[in-house]
C-alpha cells in the first residue's frame, strides 16, 4: 500500500528503500509545535504557505491555555492563521487527528503530514499519514511537497471476530505486544481486516502503529464498510497482488481478551484477567477516558454502558474528555454525557487533556492512572514516579467503578454507589 500510494503521488514507481518526492494534501500543525513552525517559515525559509487551504493549525494539546507562555504561543498561532489564510481549529474543537478526520481533511490516497507522531491515524481511511518535526512540516507547507524514504511493509492480518467486552483497543495493544515497541521502526504497518472494523476502530488501530515505531499504519479498505470512508477509494491504494512484506503477523480476534499495557513500556501488554492479585488489588487514583486513541462517541458509549446506574469509587477520580466538539454534541444528544456525569465523572473540554501530562489531570508522585491513551512511559502523565496503565474504555470504566483494575463483568453485580461518590 505504501509503495503504491507513494508511487502514484510521486508520479513514478518507487519501492521500499527508494526516495520519493510527493505532493502533500494536508499539513497539520498542533499548538505545541506552532511557534517553531512559524519561526521556520518566517525566519528560516522566509516563505508563506504555498497552498494555505492545505494547512491546518489545531489548538488542542493544552487547550484552553494553562500558562502565560502557552497563551502567548496560541495567540501567535491565531495571528499567523489570520495573516496567511491557513485553517485554524481553536480551543474546544478537539484533538487534531479527530478533527481532521471529521472535516474530511484526510482522504483515501492522500498524503497527510502532521507535526504530531499519531498522524499515522489517517491510515484508517487509507491516507498515508505520518508525523514529522517542525522543519519538515514547514518545508512541506512552503513547497507543497515532501520527500520520504519509502518504508518497508509489515503485514498484519486479523482473523475471527471481537468477542463481547473486547474492543479494537485490545486488538491494537495485542498488535503492539506482538510487533514490539521498536518492532516496526520506519516501516508501514499494513492491516488486513476485511470489514471487521468501523472507521473509529480503524483509527484506534492506525493510531497505535506509531507506538511500534511505524512510519505509517495503513488499513486495507475492505468489505461492506467502504461507505464510512466518505470519499471514493482509488484502486491504486490497494496493495499489489503478490506484494512482499518484511514480516507477516496473524492476530486471532476470537481468542483475544481485554488487554492492558503496564508501565513503563507500551508493549508490556498483559491479559487483564491474568494480572497478578497484587496488581488487581492495587488502588487506582485516576482513570482517564479520552484521547485520539479512544475519545470517540463509541468509546464514551462503551464507558457509559459500564457506568450507567453506578458510581465512581471513593478515592478514585474519573476524567472524561471527548475527542472533539462533534463527539461532545453526539454524547450530549444521546444522553451519554448525562450518564457519565451522574456516575461522577469530571468532564473536560474536547482536546488532549492530561494525555501528555501538561494540564487537566497531572499525576502526583506514586499515583496510579488507568488511561485509554497510547503512551505510558516514565513521566508521561506527570511525575516520574506515577504509573500509567493503558486499556480500553470498558476496562477503564470498570476500573473507575471498582477503584482498582477491573473487567466490565466485575461491575455487573455493583448497582448504585460503591460507598458513595
Ligand atoms: C505534542 C506532540 C508533538 C506529541 C506527539 O508528537 O505525539 C503529542 O501529541 C504526544 O502524544 O506525545
Ligand atoms: S490525545 Fe495524546 S496522543 Fe493524541 S495527539 Fe493529543 S497528546 Fe498526542
UniProtKB/TrEMBL annotation:
Heterodimer of LeuC and LeuD. The lineage of its organism: Bacteria, Thermotogati, Deinococcota, Deinococci, Deinococcales. One of its GO terms (molecular function) is 4 iron, 4 sulfur cluster binding. It comes from the Bacteria. InterPro entries: Acnase/IPM_dHydase_lsu_aba_1/3, Acoase/IPM_deHydtase_lsu_aba, Aconitase_4Fe-4S_BS, Aconitase_4Fe-4S_dom, HAcnase/IPMdehydase_lsu_prok, Homoacnase/IPMdehydase_lsu, IPM_dehydratase_rel_enz. This is 3-isopropylmalate dehydratase large subunit. Keywords: 4Fe-4S, Amino-acid biosynthesis, Branched-chain amino acid biosynthesis, Iron, Iron-sulfur, Leucine biosynthesis, Lyase, Metal-binding. Belongs to the aconitase/IPM isomerase family. LeuC type 2 subfamily. Its EC number is 4.2.1.33. [4Fe-4S] cluster binds at residues 292, 352, 355. It catalyses: (2R,3S)-3-isopropylmalate = (2S)-2-isopropylmalate.
Amino acid at each position: 500500500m505504501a509503495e503504491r500510494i507513494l508511487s502514484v503521488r510521486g508520479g513514478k514507481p518507487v519501492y521500499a528503500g527508494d526516495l520519493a518526492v510527493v505532493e502533500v494534501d494536508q499539513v497539520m500543525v498542533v499548538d505545541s509545535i506552532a511557534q517553531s513552525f512559524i519561526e521556520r517559515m518566517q525566519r528560516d525559509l522566509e516563505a508563506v504557505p504555498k497552498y494555505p487551504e492545505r494547512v491546518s493549525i489545531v489548538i488542542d494539546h493544552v487547550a484552553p491555555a494553562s500558562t502565560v507562555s502557552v497563551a502567548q504561543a496560541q495567540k501567535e498561532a491565531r495571528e499567523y492563521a489570520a495573516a496567511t489564510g491557513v485553517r485554524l481549529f481553536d480551543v474546544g474543537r478537539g484533538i487534531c487527528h479527530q478533527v481532521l478526520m471529521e472535516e474530511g481533511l484526510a482522504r483515501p490516497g492522500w498524503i497527510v503530514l502532521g507535526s504530531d507522531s499519531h498522524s499515522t491515524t489517517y491510515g484508517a481511511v487509507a491516507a498515508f499519514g505520518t508525523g514529522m518535526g517542525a522543519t519538515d512540516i514547514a518545508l512541506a507547507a512552503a513547497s507543497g511537497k515532501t520527500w520520504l524514504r519509502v518504508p518497508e511493509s509489515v503485514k498484519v492480518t486479523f482473523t475471527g471476530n471481537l468477542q463481547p467486552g473486547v474492543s479494537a483497543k485490545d486488538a491494537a495493544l495485542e498488535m503492539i505486544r506482538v510487533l514490539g515497541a521498536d518492532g516496526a521502526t520506519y516501516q508501514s504497518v499494513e492491516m488486513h481486516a476485511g470489514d471487521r472494523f468501523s472507521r473509529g476502530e480503524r483509527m484506534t488501530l492506525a493510531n497505535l502503529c506509531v507506538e511500534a515505531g511505524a512510519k505509517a499504519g495503513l488499513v486495507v479498505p475492505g468489505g461492506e464498510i467502504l461507505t464510512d470512508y466518505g470519499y471514493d477509494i482509488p484502486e491504486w491504494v490497494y496493495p499489489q497482488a503478490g506484494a512482499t512484506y518484511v514480516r507477516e503477523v496473524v492476530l486471532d480476534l476470537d481468542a483475544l481478551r481485554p488487554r492492558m499495557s503496564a508501565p513503563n513500556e507500551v508493549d508490556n501488554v498483559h491479559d487483564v484477567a491474568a494480572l497478578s492479585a497484587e496488581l488487581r488489588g492495587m488502588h487506582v487514583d485516576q482513570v482517564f477516558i479520552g484521547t485520539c486513541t479512544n475519545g470517540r462517541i463509541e468509546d464514551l458509549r462503551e464507558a457509559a454502558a459500564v457506568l450507567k446506574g453506578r458510581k465512581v469509587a471513593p478515592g478514585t477520580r474519573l476524567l472524561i474528555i471527548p475527542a472533539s466538539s462533534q463527539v461532545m454534541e453526539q454524547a450530549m444528544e444521546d444522553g451519554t454525557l448525562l450518564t457519565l456525569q451522574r456516575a461522577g465523572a469530571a468532564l473536560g473540554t474536547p482536546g488532549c487533556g492530561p494525555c501528555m501530562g501538561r494540564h487537566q489531570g497531572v499525576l502526583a508522585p506514586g499515583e496510579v492512572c488507568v488511561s485509554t491513551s497510547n503512551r505510558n512511559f516514565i513521566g508521561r502523565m506527570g511525575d516520574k514516579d506515577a504509573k500509567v496503565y493503558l486499556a480500553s474504555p470498558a476496562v477503564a470504566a470498570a476500573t473507575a467503578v471498582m477503584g482498582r483494575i477491573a473487567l466490565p463483568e466485575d461491575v455487573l453485580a455493583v448497582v448504585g454507589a460503591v460507598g458513595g461518590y
